[in-house]
Amino acid sequence: MSSTALSQFSIPFLMGNNLNAWSEALAGFNLFGLPLGLVILAAIPLVFIALYSLTYGVYGERKISAFMQDRLGPMEVGKWGILQTLADILKLLQKEDIVPTSADKFLFVIGPGILFVGSFLAYAVLPFSPAFIGASLNVGLFYAIGIVALEVVGILAAGWGSNNKWSLYGAVRSVAQIVSYEIPAAIALLCGAMMAGTLDMQKITMLQSGSLGFAHFFLFQTPIAWLPFLIYFIASLAEVNRAPFDIPEAESELVAGYFTEYSGMKFAVIFLAEYGSMFMVSAIISIVFLGGWNSPLPNIGPLALNDLTNGPLWGAFWIITKGFFFIFVQMWLRWTLPRLRVDQLMYLCWKVLTPFAFVSFVLTAIWEVYVP
Amino acid sequence: MQELDTTGLGSVRVTRKSDNVVVIEKDLATEQMVLAMGPQHPSTHGVLKLECLTDGEVITEAVPYLGYLHRCFEKCCENVDYPAVVPYTDRLDYLAGMNSEFSYALAVEKLLDIEIPRRVEFIRVIVAELNRIASHLVAIGTYGIDLGAFTPFLFCFRDREIILGLLEWASGARMLYNYIWVGGLAYDVPSDFLTRVREFVTYFRPKTLELCNLLTKNEIFVKRTLGIGIMPADVAINYGWSGPMLRGSGVKWDLRRNDPYSVYPELDFNVPVPDGKLSVVGDCLSRHLVRAFEMDESLKIIEQCIDKMPSAEGFNPRSAIPKRIRPKAGEVYSRAENPRGELGFYIQSDGKSTKPIRCKARSSCFVNLSAMKDLSKGQLIPDLVAIIGSIDIVLGEVDR
Amino acid sequence: MSEYFGNIKTGAVTIASGMGITLKHFFNAIHRKGDAGVDDVNYFRQVDGLCTLQYPREVIPTPKNGRYRLYNNIEDCIGCGQCVRACPIACIAIETIKVAADDLALCGKTSDGQQKKFWIPVFDIDVAKCMTCGICTTVCPTECLAHTSVSDFSEFDRSNFIYHFGNLSRREAEAKRRKNADLQAKAQAEKEKKAAEALKESKGGESGEPINVL
Fold first, then answer.
1. Which DSSP string corresponds to C54-122?
2. Backbone angles phi, psi at A32, to 5 degrees
3. Interface test with C, best of B104, B168, B202 (most C CBs within 10 A)
């Protein structure tokens, strides 16, 4: 078993038609009776989150925001400041790990943990390439939607445990926000699920492959798919507390929101969780509406661009590129827009996004039933 | 139906019906929380402390606590000569040093009753208006930050940097100029200064437009400020408001027009007052708009000043400066329009000393801030932040 | 209902226009604005672009008339002490010793030919206190005290902010002082002698009482 896994590793292009083979082989890899394969499998997304948060998340955000604001951004550590994040991490590691005296110590410590685990768990069902998915659940999408809600617990624990008024405000705001935005987000994703007829993330992606590239993506399959796409994108911003919905951590109102009291590595973990969930929602939206690991390039006559650019490694490239694009849009929005007020946030959720989500749900259903 | 006293009870409403039946309505049992906002809070613009009583996110009362930046301005003035007060006035409203100096110089000149060369007047107006633009840029930029938009702030500071450079070129210092002296100026402006200022005006016009598109017109920004913190004109007058705050409430009151000083009567400019089309008169958006429009008016004033200015031939900026300032016994109050409102100086002289025996600054920020209690009642915390931002306080001037 | 959709529309349009502006700046980030000072003719002809200057290596040039660090050209200083009296925050400390008549040539003249009459062993400026108002420089009769355009002079130790401009070392100052004291004592003795003589003359030695002149 292990030998086959390793042999396939060297010829990834041959596995285009053997879905999940690589990851399933890896999962079955046992060394001296220990499920080492599973550990490696679990470690891949973790390493990915860490690397991506380090490079694109923190450094990229700082650079992108700087360029949008006519600044240079970090420039001192390494060439173009490329090692800035490493320096920051080192600084955070050296910092004293402060737990306020009057804080609820258990909740205070467990909060960042839950947050991080919550954002990390959803990576299990993200198909990173045709040959790699952590857990090929048949309710993958459902699981991904549900697991986001776990973050609420972490935020509430962090906010309440800090015993700080600003943290409490941040936590309460955050819970109200995430719970509300779950509804339009879920309904918008259901439109995609309805078009696919399955909740399995890998199958949803597979259904969007074809020689015409992007034309097979759900976004371009029906004339109304852009509506749930847009709704999910907006709602996902709110779910990961990004501007203009960053009211739980609104720095000009609530100092730093629910992580006001955190410092050192706990703060870094919260940050990592935030960037982790940013990529998670970006990946979900690209899987459901933009074909996941499928190449958007079409076959044009003899030029078989689509066939050339598909495969396990290409798949990973495409889904990460798509995810990064949406993260870029998230950053772009953040550095352009002011912040909404709490009641406006709720207005947007309940009076704009939710009705439109229902409308798009019904329209998609009608389209699926009556249009072949 | 009559509402009884509900102070301190928050969500408890006691109403008395006509047949003398008292109805006590109670929302979910909530407890009021004291929230100390500041002095290290990011959006209190310095070291203001607001002690808020909150019911959930609703503020039932907000009391400003001042004095964290008190530097004994008035006592300092009593111990230094008249010309040496000027650097201290810079430090009152450190974002608009030129305007403060201008105001102080006007006061002492009134006390001394001296004539100022014409070119000096024009240069004073140019630097003061440049400083007004710089100050409004800070006000608008930080208001953006208060509402969560970070980028406009940096665009504002990029342009303010140019103004600071221009003023540094003229006076030698970037923020604390000591340029406008009693009776004249420290130096004449450099020979290229006026052409550079004119270039700045042409450079800056499109930038204001960009700022408008990025921030002022943004729907979220409008939604956050429209109808928030409304101050009726009569209450504003009773509070003694001045400057963009009073004009935001719809009162056309600008000391450059209503109590003209220097060469302002010769210049053609508008006093922008909200008409209620873009905003609700008296709300945060009106105040923001007044500042935004005032920048355009300042540009107009600067252009006219450059055109009308007498040439530098045979000009000595210090020609009218008295050798030793020892005014006759008496007192004077003089005021000028600062970016934040009326900055007045009350100066008393005993006729013997070269030091003022009393020098009081009437600070606009302090007076404007005094309405905080009224404005904040029943607002949400985000709205409170929007209101503080729209007051545009500089704690240096509040605490003095 | 139309207001509802109108709101959504204006929201979308204004957000899009704002995003257009930031995207324009994002793509404009390939340009960098130069570091020309505002007194440069081409100041406003620099490209629009990133305007950060990386401080220690790139600086905004301060204009020639920049009013920053105080500098006293002690060669020209006549020790009049006007600056000390003018300074609103008393950041200048000065000590002077009168130049003895035979030392005048040694003490020299200022660059505009004025005879200096004081040694200045101590001329200390605490630039940490200095608020660069420039009042001391305007009262200076020889224009030896001036603000320079050096704007960055940070130090690790506060005491380094006290700049010493005195033109005598402590030992020299001591010598000058002693010399002055000697001269004074000599002059005093002379005076006493003269006075005593005068007294003796006027009184003609009438009484034998000792006279205490001082």
1. -TTTS-PPPPTT---SEEE-TTT-----HHHHH-TT--EEEEEEEPPGGGHHHH-B-TTSPBP-EEEEE
2. 50, 45
3. B168
Backbone angles phi, psi at B317, to 5 degrees: -65, -15
SS3 B193: helix
Mean pLDDT of chain B: 84
Q: Do B381 and A244 touch (CB under 8 A)?
A: no
**Cβ-defined contact of B173 to C131 (cutoff 8 Å):** no
Between B and C, how many CB-CB pairs are < 8 A? 86
Each residue's pLDDT tens digit, B91-142:
888 888 899 999 999 888 888 888 888 888 888 899 999 999 999 999 999 9
Calculate how close chain B gets to A339, using CA atoms only, in Å: 5
CB B46: neighbour CB atoms within 10 A? 15
At CB < 8 Å, which residues of chain B contact A?
33, 35, 41-43, 57, 144-151, 154-155, 158, 214-215, 218, 220-221, 223-224, 380-383, 385
Q: What is the pLDDT of residues A256-310, one digit of tens each?
A: 778 888 888 888 888 888 888 888 888 888 888 888 788 777 777 777 777 777 7
Contact check, Cβ <8 Å, C54/A75: yes
Q: Report chain C residues whose CB lies below 8 A from the CB of B171.
A: 67
What is the pLDDT, as a whole number, of residue A52?
A: 75
Give pLDDT tens digits for A308-359. 777 777 777 888 888 888 888 988 888 888 888 888 888 888 888 899 999 9
The reply to whether residue A68 touches residue C25, judged by beta carbons under 8 angstroms, is: yes
pLDDT at B20: 60
Contact criterion met (CB < 8 Å) for C66 and B196:
no
Assessment of whether the complete model's pTM goes beyond 0.95? no
CA distance B364 to B397: 8
C207 pLDDT exceeds 60?
Answer: no
List chain C residues with CB under 8 Å of A332. 19, 22-23, 26
Contact C126, C153 (CB under 8 A): no
Q: ipTM score here?
A: 0.80
Task: Supply B352's token pair.
Answer: 């013997």
**Residues of C in Cβ contact (< 8 Å) with B285:** none
β-sheet with B341-349: strand ranges across: B330-338, B341-349, B358-362
Let me know: does A100 contact A108? Beta carbons within 8 Å: yes
Which residue is closest to B159 within chain C, CA to CA?
Answer: C51
**Which residue from C22, C50, C52 is facing A332, i.e. has the nearest CB?**
C22
Which of C18, C22, C52 minimises the CB distance to A72?
Answer: C52
Chain B CA closest to residue A249: B148
Across the interface, do A69 and C25 touch by the CB < 8 Å criterion? yes
Cα separation, B270 vs B264, in Å, equals 12
Residue-wise DSSP of B258-304: HS--TTGGGS--------SSSS-TTSHHHHHHHHHHHHHHHHHHHHH
User: Inter-chain contact C67–B162, Cβ cutoff 8 Å?
Assistant: no
How confident is the model over B180-207, as a mean pLDDT? 87
User: What pLDDT shows up at residue B11?
Assistant: 54
Question: Distance between the two ends of chain B, CA-based, in angstroms?
Answer: 48
Residues of chain C positioned with their CB less than 8 A from the CB of A69: 25
- Would you give the distance in Å from CA B244 to the centre of its chain? 7
Query: From residue A9, how far is each of A21, A129, C61 by CA, in Å?
Result: 10, 13, 59
pLDDT of amino acid B373:
83
B224, B222, B220, B242: which is closest to B233 by C-alpha? B242
Against chain B, the chains showing at least 3 CB pairs within 8 Å are A, C
For chain B, give the percent of residues with pLDDT over 90: 5
Q: What angle do CA A89, A90, A91 make, to 5 degrees?
A: 90
DSSP calls for B153-167: HHHHHHHHHHHHHHH
